[in-house]
Design brief:
Blueprint lengths: L14 H8 L1 H13 L2 H23 L8 H15 L13 H14 L1 H4 L5 H18 L1
Helix pairs in contact: 1-2, 3-4, 3-7, 4-7, 5-7
């Protein structure tokens, strides 16, 4: 899934969902940002996301890595840094509620099969959720 998750990616398919959850301005800003990237910038962004998903999946499958381990916490830090770079999201806004946003996303990764598939299924998504929540507990 990670290797092909952005092939032919059409971010506009999520417009209604994003607007319902986070408002029209959030979608408009993210849409403008995504459309404003060059093909090379878009490929680099997609590669970063794919690598992050692959790293999460590998960590979730490694018996010696727990959600609160340094390796998982490093991934959580990278994940939140990635979220901070997406305009229109609460993570990118200086006064945005990063903690509530990341908690909601983390729960969504488990509850929504579309997200869980990026992390190897519900079990992998549960690992991501638990690591992100541990990171928030430790840092916020």
């Amino acid at each position: 899934m990670a290797e092909t998750m952005f092939d032919g990616f059409d971010h506009t398919q999520y417009k209604d969902e994003v607007e319902q959850r986070w408002g029209k301005d959030a979608y408009a800003r993210s849409d403008a940002w995504y459309r404003g990237m060059s093909d090379e910038e878009r490929r680099a962004w997609q590669a970063r996301v794919e690598q992050l998903a692959q790293d999460w999946t590998a960590a979730a499958e490694a018996a010696e890595i727990t959600p609160d381990s340094p390796a998982a916490q490093d991934l959580a830090h990278r994940h939140i840094d990635w979220l901070r770079g997406i305009p229109g999201t609460p993570a990118a806004e200086p006064d945005g509620d990063l903690v509530a946003y990341v908690r909601a996303l983390a729960e969504g990764y488990v509850a929504d099969e579309r997200f869980a598939a990026n992390y190897g299924g519900v079990e992998g998504a549960s690992f991501v959720r638990d690591a992100l929540l541990a990171y928030l507990e430790r840092t916020h």
